[in-house]
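Crash report, auto-generated. Payload:
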Amino acid sequence: MKKYLSFFRLRFSMGLQYRVAAFAGLVTQFAWGGMLILAYRAFYRADPNAFPMTFQATATYVWLQQAFLMLFQPWGFEYDILEAISSGSVAYELCRPVSVYNMWFARTVATRASATFLRCWPVLILGALLPAPYGISAPSCVQQLLWALLSGILGMLVSSAICMLVYFSTFYTVNSTGVRTISACLTDFLQGSVIPLPFMPDGIRQVLELLPFAATLNAPLRIYSGDIAGITLIRTVVLQFFWLGVLVAAGKLLERNAMKKTVIQGG
Amino acid sequence: MIEVSHLRKTFRVAKRNAGFSQALKALFHREYEEIHALDGVSFSIGEGEMVGYIGPNGAGKSSTIKVLSGILTPDSGECLVDGQVPWKDRVNHVRQIGVVFGQRSQLWWDVPVIDSFELLKEIYAVPEDLYRKNLSELTELLNLSELLRTPTRQLSLGQRMRCEMAASLLHSPRILFLDEPTIGLDAVSKLAVRDFIKQLNREHKTTVILTTHDMQDIEALASRVLLIGKGRILLDGTLEDIRLASSGDGGKNIDETLAQLYKQYEI
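Recovered output after restart:
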């Protein structure tokens, strides 16, 4: 366990190193979040009853999404890993006395968690200070907050497990661009990053909510806002555990196969 | 320490002629050529030996190193390193070995070298006191004290190579594989690296296998030379044996002698 935690230490110190990047990222998140909320406000003005979530709930969703962007973001690959697989530097990774899957999983989680930890506070604080209904609303009870936290951690693990599939596919395709782009675009849309899943038409929505992508961003944010509660909440969290198990098992299978047939090219 | 017998590995390489029509043809029908990277390689190396592994480009040197370090599974043949089959139990095997790939890097690009070392310490689970001891010894021998706090990206190639060496030895491996460790280094760095390898072998009885194209490396380091060509071991002896095997006159320098020998063996 200690060896995996050391990735966090390294990632934290790396994250702290890039101050300008963090600042620029923050500015983007504020601008993007503000823009989305203004756009939604225009829609809600036309007919507030046409929407499945209240404006307040939507605003909360948008700010939380911005605050925890790095935690679930579908583009959050470890580019070093992809680069190492394509270039062959992965030879070194294979010379380490640890499971490659576990090592890369820890790295991915470490990057996501440390980047989020360094960046989420300004958005959360400012979001909480904004006047209703434009800011983040408080959760109705502590229990709800705890469920959202658990679901958030699961969501981050599921997001990372999706990334792992992309890494190991690179052992077969050599260049990761195709799989990476498809995976990121699909996840982006299907996890509710573009529009929250409740906004999807009936029929499609029910299917999307069962997919692993919904187990990332969609679940914790809607649990927080109270949109998912009661028996649906239990079902959502169980589904998150289920997808985490399936994705990790699939990744490990892919790993075993890749290790057997890997050829590090070049001298 | 190392027993290798009848190792074989064949790669399939896609080939086509130049031109658009050929490219179009290759879209539907690929022609593959089988390359016998290893074609029945056998040798054995005792504990504490320092062996130079030479041969022209594409002879199978790197493939052998990859098999020995457990990252390439051969098609057939047997291989025992310290009583273990490298590719069977990769994780346990790699604990015993250190590898330096001269053309790749194992240090984290953005952070000071010492951070990479600390991470390796955790990954190999090196006890704290052993780590301290190894680090101070390596720092002294490789003259690293000025470099440890510098980010890897700001090191020169020679400085980086010294750090790579140290990184591969932090866990006191009993066997060290060096794949072209002096490639691209200036005279001073080359001498420093050679001196260090000699000292390591003398004081710690580390078994060293070194591939190189620089015959001065071999003259300085290896008491025994393995010559490989077209996937076969062609000569196993001392540098003197190489001089004797070459049919040319004795006055030429070692590079010319070797080139003559390659010609004789038609490799």
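Post-recovery validation: DSSP finds twelve helices and no strands in chain A.
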